[in-house]
Write a structure and sequence with these properties.
The chain is α/β, with parallel strands linked by helices. It has 11 helices and 14 strands.
Length: 368
């Protein structure tokens, strides 16, 4: 009888549990992927969202079947007339993000040709109680007072010569609040040297009037230029930047050929509001506050001016302060009128009357 121990018994191969688990997971994954792509043709988009309509799962009462010559019935749906309408942007729901935590501002205005340490001191000496200055750094000429290092200023020769850094440093040592003013869209120099930025009329002519030559507020390069100037001033230590001339020309009935790439032609209101929101967002992380000068009485009284495009409601939402030219006696009335637009902060700190003499309001700028 043979000895069983003389024969080799082969080892049984055991399937590892991990391998079995992997095979199951891969199989389920493959099934889900096939199911996903297979059911895509049954996805239906409706007002309530996305859902599946699989023919063999549908209630007979909800299907409309049509027999064709080629065989099985095909589900048919009632035709829908879809119309895509593109209108003007709606800025009515813009949230108020600026104007909180401000202090009173009592400033003296310093014209561009007097921006120097001696010129600023001379102006401060003429106004009792002034704790701030408003330096005019970009006028309708388009030339900058300071030696800007921005690309367009250097490339198109708009940079000035004043050493603004040393002036800012000196004023800060004396605890004087520094606000500066930039003219936005009236720019004689840039409109002539960089003609692609000019505001054009429908007949292809660059627009100009008694104020000067105008830039297109919807042009991306114009927005970038103003934004870069603001950013440079903020990094220099300026406390507040006031955008002046942020409006369309006061010319009712003129049609403009905006360079905007939007599907609908902008209106003056949408062009100016769009610029305001865009530049305020670009300066959100900057240390300097961003403000605007309102020049339209219509906008102050009714909220919006369809000719100049200025919108008091938008301005008070996205800018820290709104500066408004007034006389000494009506300054208090201007502050009261602005209260209806203020949702953040104190209106006495946010509406800044610009007068020839210091008014009785909490905040003011004297321009003499």
């Amino acid at each position: 009888m043979a000895n069983n121990s003389e024969f080799y018994r082969g080892k049984r191969k055991k399937v590892a549990p991990a391998l079995i688990t992997t095979i199951i997971v891969l199989s389920i994954t493959a099934f889900v992927i096939m199911l996903f792509y297979g059911l895509q043709k049954y996805i239906v988009v409706s007002n309530s969202g996305l859902h599946l309509e699989i023919p063999f799962l549908q209630d007979d009462g909800k299907q409309s079947n049509t027999q064709t010559d080629e065989g099985p019935a095909v589900q048919s749906f009632a035709p829908v007339d879809a119309v895509l309408e593109i209108g003007q942007p709606d800025y009515s729901n813009v949230s108020a993000t600026a104007g909180d935590g401000l202090s009173a501002l009592n400033a003296v205005f310093v014209p561009a040709d007097e921006v120097s340490q001696s010129g600023i001191d001379a102006k401060l000496g003429t106004v009792t109680g002034a704790n701030a200055v408003l330096l005019d750094l970009k006028t309708v000429t388009g030339m900058l007072v300071w030696n800007s290092e921005t690309d367009i200023a250097k490339g198109y020769g708009t940079a000035g010569t004043v050493d603004l850094k040393s002036i800012v440093s000196d004023l800060k040592e004396r605890d004087i609040y520094i606000a500066v003013r930039l003219c936005c869209f009236v720019d004689n120099t840039l409109a002539s040297r960089y003609t692609q930025l000019a505001l054009m009329t429908k007949d292809g002519q660059a627009y100009s009037d008694s104020s000067g030559a105008w830039l297109d507020p919807t042009n991306a390069v114009v927005r970038s230029y103003i934004s870069s100037l603001c950013s440079e001033l903020s990094k220099m230590g300026v406390d507040e930047i006031v955008l002046h001339g942020m409006r369309m020309p006061e010319a009712a009935g003129v049609e403009y050929a905006f360079s905007s790439t939007s599907a609908v032609t902008p209106t003056p209101v949408s062009a100016i509001s769009g610029f305001a929101i865009s530049i305020s967002r670009s300066m959100r992380s900057a240390s300097a506050r961003l403000s605007v000068q309102l020049t339209s009485q219509t906008a102050m009284q009714s909220g919006s001016d369809t000719v100049t495009g200025q919108n008091a409601e938008i301005f008070f939402k996205v800018f820290d302060r709104v500066y408004y030219t007034s006389d000494k006696d009506s300054a208090s009335g201007a502050v009261s009128a602005a209260e209806q637009y203020v949702t953040l902060g104190d209106v006495n700190m946010r509406l800044i009357p610009i007068c020839s003499e210091a008014p009785s309001t909490t905040s003011w700028v004297v321009m003499n």
